[in-house]
Design goal:
Blueprint: H1 3-18, H2 25-39
Helix pairs in contact: 1-2
Amino acid sequence: MPARASELLDGLSTRVVLGQRDADRPASLERARSAAALLVPHL
């Protein structure tokens, strides 16, 4: 995956997780990043 695409997915994942209260942040970040990668498979 290109570096820029990885940065975009990380940013999207962080925004999703920051919107969750009392989230297990590391695990939530990984799940959100995986979901974002599925939504944007061409990156």
